[in-house]
């Protein structure tokens, strides 16, 4: 089964390890091609071999590989604000290209054009169990997952980003069913470790207030300078007064957004029908809006997913192809507000699940959030 992380099956340090690492899910094909130009027609493992060879011969430096690596977008993101007073030199990151390394922090990795921004890598080793062979001849074997968490440290913030994966543990020689690795049990500690290294004081922004109040009031179907913004509710998990709500909008077409809005519409109709007001469109719309607002903003929302787009401005529509695309995709994320700090679930950590493709993953989400926070 494929694991969305680097799995070490006992590779020899040096060239073999480097090539397997570059070939793993830790690198996208696009990143490898960025590192080694002129390889667009090669398969991923071929590009990886080309880069490993160039590194071995000194034609590429470790920094040529590490900087594109740490700048890749990830699935998960957690942000803190504040400043650090020093740049700490930790374990050498170039070691990670040729050997597994030990648990701990590596870096910094720097870019000449952005002297106020630095990247660090937190390595964490996880035992993964597999059964090799079949029948009575089969045996349990251990291999190691190297989970990498990337820290981007700016002048006024730190952002940790990572990918999730599933793994197996064993009980009495039996392999347990694969489960999601509980990253939320580790990210708090990683923040604290790096804060000590960098003599920093970082705190989470109020993501709940930022998303459900500031951004909501600013963008929800609003027109700014003549440009229309479109906000789509996708998922919500909320809990208040002993009642839990888990709703999802299954259709995301502009004229067919079901789920939350359909629930709000039905509740509004039921109430107004009893009151004899169901034939009043204005009251119906007002009731729907009030119920939707209550469900999302005022019912103990633990997590919420939405996407935000805007219509293209006239000067952005330059080609016939673009004319078919009416929207610019700005933001899409599943926001976990961290409102249950003592929980053993994801609700203990303030973080976001980001989406690649049109929405650019963690890199684009971080850029958008920092802009909204005034950085």
Describe the structure.
The chain is of the alpha+beta class and 375 residues long. The chain is 29% helix and 31% strand. The protein contains 10 helices and 17 strands. It has helices spanning 15-23, 29-35, 44-56, 62-70, 187-197, 207-219, 260-274, 281-297, 320-323, 361-372; strands at residues 6-8, 76-84, 104-110, 118-132, 139-153, 157-162, 166-167, 170-171, 174-175, 179-180, 200-203, 223-224, 227-240, 243-248, 301-311, 327-337, 350-354. Strands 1, 2, 3, 4, 5, 6, 11, 12, 13, 14, 15, 16 and 17 form a 13-stranded antiparallel beta sheet that branches. Strands 7-10 form a two-stranded antiparallel sheet. Strands 8-9 form a two-stranded antiparallel sheet. β13 (227-240) and β14 (243-248) form a beta hairpin. α1 packs antiparallel against α3 (44-56), α2 packs antiparallel against α4 (62-70) and α7 packs across α8. 30% of the residues are buried.
Task: Record keyword descriptors for this entry.
375 residues; alpha+beta; 13-stranded antiparallel sheet; two-stranded antiparallel sheet; 10 helices; 17 strands; 29% helix; 31% strand; globular
């Amino acid at each position: 089964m494929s694991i969305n992380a680097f799995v070490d099956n006992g590779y020899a340090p040096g060239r073999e390890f480097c090539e397997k690492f570059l070939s793993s899910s830790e690198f996208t094909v696009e990143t490898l091609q960025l590192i080694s130009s002129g390889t667009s027609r090669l398969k991923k493992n071929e590009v990886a071999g080309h880069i490993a060879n160039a590194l071995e011969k000194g034609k590429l430096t470790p920094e040529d590989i590490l900087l594109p690596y740490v700048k890749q977008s990830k699935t998960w993101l957690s942000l803190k604000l504040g400043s650090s007073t020093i740049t700490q030199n930790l374990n050498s990151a170039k070691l990670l290209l040729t050997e597994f390394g030990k648990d701990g922090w590596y870096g910094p990795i720097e870019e000449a054009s952005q002297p106020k921004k630095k990247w660090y890598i937190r390595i964490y080793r996880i035992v993964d169990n597999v059964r090799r062979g079949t029948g009575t001849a089969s045996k349990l074997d251990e291999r190691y997952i190297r989970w990498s968490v990337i820290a981007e440290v700016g002048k006024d913030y730190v952002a940790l980003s990572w990918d999730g994966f599933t793994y197996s543990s064993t009980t009495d020689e039996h392999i347990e069913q694969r489960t999601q690795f509980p990253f939320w049990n580790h990210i708090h500690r990683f923040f604290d470790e790096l804060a000590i290294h960098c003599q920093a004081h970082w705190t989470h922004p109020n993501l709940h207030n930022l998303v459900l109040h500031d951004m909501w009031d600013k963008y929800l179907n609003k027109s700014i300078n003549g440009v229309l913004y479109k906000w789509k509710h996708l998922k919500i998990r909320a809990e208040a007064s002993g009642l839990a709500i888990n709703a999802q909008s299954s259709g995301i077409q502009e004229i067919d957004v079901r789920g939350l809005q359909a629930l709000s519409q039905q509740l509004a109709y039921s109430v107004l029908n009893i009151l004899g007001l169901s034939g009043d469109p204005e009251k119906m719309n007002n009731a729907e809006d009030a119920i939707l607002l209550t469900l999302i903003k005022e019912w103990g929302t633990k997590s919420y997913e939405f996407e935000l787009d805007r219509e293209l401005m006239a000067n952005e529509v330059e080609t016939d192809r673009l004319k078919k695309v009416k929207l610019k995709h700005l933001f899409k994320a599943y926001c976990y507000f961290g409102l249950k700090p003592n929980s053993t679930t994801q609700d203990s950590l303030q973080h976001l699940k980001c989406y690649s493709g049109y929405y650019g993953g963690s890199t684009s989400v971080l850029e958008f959030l920092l802009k909204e926070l005034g950085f």
